[in-house]
């Protein structure tokens, strides 16, 4: 199981020299500064970044890219630029009078034991736990539910700074072996190892250059996916191509691994291997991008001579393996069912006309299905919150599992032979709580509840529906203290994502509790582009409809202002990755609407995103500047390319990390350099670059607390609020 939380120009006539030296021709603007010179500062808190004469021709349109040299993030001049920017940013943050008090409070409320739901492998139970402030969660093992727990694998001992995380764990059928992946400094690159579970002995197996893969066991080894070893110095930015599936036998060297599947004609495809629980079938899911749409291939593992055959050989819909029933396969799919349905397929006759529908599509979105003890456990989304239903093996509805409130369920799944499972429920003011579900009796009971040093009873959560620009009704969760006065003066934090079929459901964040306990309002709209209402909702926010996403978010802000929750001077917006693109785009389009903007690890250069690491995989979602029509759309929404000279933009704190090989930091580097150049007015435009961190998964607790401290401090300070005195600053 994966632990934690997944982007040439034929008309381009310019050079690709990413690290210009001091002889590079400079743009004839004032002030001009050679690359490599010490940073010269304008009026605090802005800076001047060196520019080069880089102009690209996209289908007859010239587009300047004067900060192209910042794409070479390993170059010494770029490292010096990062150091200078961090010095500027932390010099600003250090002067915020209540910053240390925020950090002290965050550290205190963060410090509580955080458990994840246990799962059974062989005769033992395993679970992850963080004692409170450990940088990484630790894997524990115990014999039976009442046995004494013992540390099984502690990633905090794998690096001196706590930045090495466990990315995946997978156990052999009898629980004898565990394959696990680690990632260092937040990178998507993984290394796989093998442990003998009884002795806790780490074996000699060591597999490298793995990305976007689990370990799928078969007999005494497992299937996994990897890339070829990248060229020296290029692993963090170069385009990832030619994903391949291998089989590794325990106790052998990686060089001996057997190549199982590759597609030389489609170098940009990703391949994910999975085996059925009884190890009868190997299933390979192929995707052409970050979209959930995929093709499926299968192999009958009971026949060594059997070939890998197509089960679904087109890219029209999403197909997710649930399990096999003998020689047939249970699949959750949105083929002809935007809200998904469960079907039984004969691999020898896979055409849709031969499918047997087990659970048909409903008004709710079928999110996850698991076959446990001859029952189908189904998690649905209804108006962006979880609902749990239990069906028999033929699809008949048996019961519904009652949940405490509007919220999110994870882990409502198990193995065919399990008689009980454990799942986690959480919501905005309901910390992650573990429940034990007994399949035969349909009984769900509390198993483990966290003890958090925040009073949860004094808050309320409501879900409203507001109208977007084109008349579409959009749901939004609003959380605040009970008895809130609607006077337009409340500090409000508006968070969004809107893309890649990702659903933003109610979830608990200890960091956001600091905001709420200091009279802040939390607002999270379920804008188009997400998966909350099925594939049609997702497509309504994909290219060429991406502007819908921005319109939905702007309309959310207008609703909060019109209903007097807040005002433009008290409204902060935030989002990460695709959500960083969202924040950058709406800041450009409606700068007067927001006081503070926090774009985190954002996709800010919409013309060149597909040139780096996995960026090509986002073309299906966004479009590509290689396509003339899509180029026009991308140019119109790209945060980097729509910053205008002399405009007063919201106070902006861009956050990124030097090891982000998902959305490379060059996006954020070029964006902030342009914003500092063009933005006017008194607001600060700053960037905060984490060192030895990545896109977010596996980020060390100490880094998370530091980032949250700086984010809340920046927001409060630029709203003119001291959260602990209520006085203006």
From TrEMBL:
Which positions fall inside the Peptidase S9 prolyl oligopeptidase catalytic domain? 506-719
At the top level of its lineage, which domain of life is listed?
A: Bacteria
Q: Which reaction is the catalytic activity of this chain?
A: Hydrolysis of Pro-|-Xaa >> Ala-|-Xaa in oligopeptides
Q: Kindly indicate where the leader peptide sits in this chain.
A: none
Record bears the keyword Protease: yes
Q: What is its EC number?
A: 3.4.21.26
**Protease: is it a keyword of this entry?**
yes
Q: Which sequence ranges are marked TM in the entry?
A: none
GO function terms (MF aspect): oligopeptidase activity; serine-type endopeptidase activity
**What's a GO biological-process term for it?**
proteolysis
Name the InterPro entries on file: AB_hydrolase_fold, Pept_S9_AS, Pept_S9A_N, Peptidase_S9_cat, Peptidase_S9A, Prolyl_oligopep/macrocyclase
Q: What class of enzyme is it?
A: hydrolase
Q: Name one Pfam family in it.
A: Peptidase_S9
Keyword list, A-Z: Hydrolase, Protease, Serine protease
Q: What does this protein do?
A: Cleaves peptide bonds on the C-terminal side of prolyl residues within peptides that are up to approximately 30 amino acids long. Has an absolute requirement for an X-Pro bond in the trans configuration immediately preceding the Pro-Y scissible bond.
Per the similarity annotation, which family is this?
Belongs to the peptidase S9A family.
- The name of this protein is prolyl oligopeptidase
Species whose genome carries this gene: Adhaeribacter pallidiroseus
């Amino acid at each position: 199981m994966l632990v934690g939380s997944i982007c040439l120009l034929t008309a381009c006539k310019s050079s690709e020299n990413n690290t210009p030296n001091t002889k590079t021709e400079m743009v004839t603007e004032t002030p001009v500064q050679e690359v490599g010179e010490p940073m010269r500062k304008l009026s605090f808190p802005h800076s001047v970044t060196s520019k080069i004469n880089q102009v690209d021709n996209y289908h007859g349109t010239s587009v300047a890219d004067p900060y192209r040299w910042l794409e070479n993030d390993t170059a010494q001049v770029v490292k010096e630029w990062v150091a200078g920017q961090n010095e500027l940013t932390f010099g600003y943050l250090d002067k915020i009078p209540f910053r240390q008090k925020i950090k002290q409070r965050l550290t205190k409320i963060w410090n509580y034991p955080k458990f994840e739901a246990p799962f059974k492998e062989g005769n033992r139970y395993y679970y992850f736990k963080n004692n409170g402030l450990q940088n990484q969660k630790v894997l524990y093992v115990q014999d039976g539910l009442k046995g004494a727990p013992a540390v099984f694998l502690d990633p905090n001992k794998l690096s001196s700074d706590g930045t090495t995380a466990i990315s995946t764990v997978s156990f052999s059928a009898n629980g004898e072996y565990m394959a696990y992946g680690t990632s260092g400094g937040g990178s998507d690159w993984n290394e796989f190892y093998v442990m003998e579970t009884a002795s806790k002995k780490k074996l000699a197996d060591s597999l490298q250059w793995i990305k976007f893969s689990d370990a799928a066991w078969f007999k005494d080894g497992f299937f996994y996916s990897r890339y070829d070893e990248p060229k020296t110095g290029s692993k963090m930015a170069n385009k990832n191509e030619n994903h391949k599936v291998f089989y590794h036998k325990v106790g052998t060297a990686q060089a001996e691994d057997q190549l199982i599947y590759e597609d030389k004609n489609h170098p940009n495809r990703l391949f994910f291997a999975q085996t059925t629980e009884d190890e009868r079938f190997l299933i390979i899911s192929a995707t052409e991008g970050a979209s959930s749409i995929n093709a499926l291939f299968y192999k009958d593992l009971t026949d060594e001579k059997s070939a890998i055959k197509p089960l679904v050989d087109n890219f029209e819909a999403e197909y997710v393996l649930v399990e096999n029933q003998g020689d047939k396969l249970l699949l959750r799919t949105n083929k002809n069912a935007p809200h998904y349905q469960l079907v039984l397929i004969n691999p020898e006759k896979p055409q849709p006309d031969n499918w047997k529908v087990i659970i048909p599509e409903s008004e709710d979105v079928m999110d996850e299905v698991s076959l446990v003890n001859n029952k189908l456990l189904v998690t649905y989304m209804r108006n962006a919150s979880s609902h749990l239903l239990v069906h028999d093996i033929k699809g008949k509805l048996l019961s519904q599992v009652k949940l405490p409130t509007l919220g999110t369920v994870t882990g409502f799944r198990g193995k065919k032979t399990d008689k009980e499972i454990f799942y986690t429920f959480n919501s905005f003011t309901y910390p992650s709580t573990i429940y034990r579900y007994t399949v035969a009796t349909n009984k769900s009971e509390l198993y483990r509840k966290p003890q958090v040093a925040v009073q949860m009873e004094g808050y309320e959560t409501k879900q409203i529906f507001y109208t977007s620009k084109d008349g579409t009704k959009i749901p939004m969760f609003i959380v605040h203290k009970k008895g809130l006065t609607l006077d337009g003066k409340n500090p409000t934090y508006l968070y969004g994502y809107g893309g890649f079929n990702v659903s933003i459901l109610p979830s608990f964040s200890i960091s956001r509790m600091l905001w709420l306990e200091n009279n802040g309002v939390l607002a999270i709209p379920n804008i188009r582009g997400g998966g909350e209402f099925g594939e049609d909702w997702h497509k309504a926010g994909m290219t060429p409809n991406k502007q819908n996403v921005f319109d939905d978010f702007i309309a959310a802000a207008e609703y909060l202002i019109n209903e007097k929750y807040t005002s433009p001077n008290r409204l902060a917006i935030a989002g990460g990755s695709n959500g960083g693109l969202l924040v950058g785009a709406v800041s450009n389009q409606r700068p007067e609407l927001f006081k503070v903007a926090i774009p985190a690890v954002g996709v800010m250069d919409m013309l060149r995103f597909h040139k780096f690491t996995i960026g090509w995989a986002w073309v299906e979602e966004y479009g590509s500047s290689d396509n003339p029509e899509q180029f026009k759309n991308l140019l119109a929404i790209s945060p980097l390319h729509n910053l205008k000279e002399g405009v007063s933009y919201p106070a902006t704190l861009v956050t990124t990390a030097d090891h982000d090989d998902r959305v490379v930091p060059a996006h954020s580097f070029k964006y902030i350099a342009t914003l500092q150049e063009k933005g006017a007015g008194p607001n600060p435009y700053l960037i905060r670059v984490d060192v030895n961190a990545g896109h977010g998964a596996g980020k060390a607790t100490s880094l998370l607390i530091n980032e949250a401290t700086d984010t809340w401090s920046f927001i409060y300070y630029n709203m003119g609020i001291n959260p602990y005195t209520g006085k203006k600053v």
